[in-house]
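Each field is listed here:
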Amino acid sequence: MSATIFLGDELHMHSGELAEWVAAIAESLSVIVALLLPYYNSHKEKKLKRRNVKIVIKKMTERAIRGDKDGVEHLRAMLTNVLFNNLDSRLEDIIDSGQQIYEILKDHRELSKEDIQQLHDLLDQIDNK
């Protein structure tokens, strides 16, 4: 049984046709979501990884500034690990800044005020990436 919907003097549509249009639109939307969902999840995963790397670099640098030698070693190990598992160009910029921090920390037994300022500047750069 089909009902007719009148939308004016000359424009009308059978309810069966309307249901087909609604079903087609819903099916199209579900295909679009299915196609875009992996890209969205990948983007979220990369963003979370960048955030976590920033946090670790910051914490290990702060430990090293306070004189903890393990902080320098943990920073080196984390940067090496992330560098070999990196597929994200934005994360590469963060790793580069982290490498600069590591180079400052590994070469100085006693950090000068200039070294500490340079470390804080690099950490600020990382926060803005």
About this structure: The longest strand covers residues 4-6. Helices lie at 15-65, 69-84, 89-107, 113-127. The mean pLDDT is 84. Residues 14 and 125 are 62 Å apart (CA to CA).
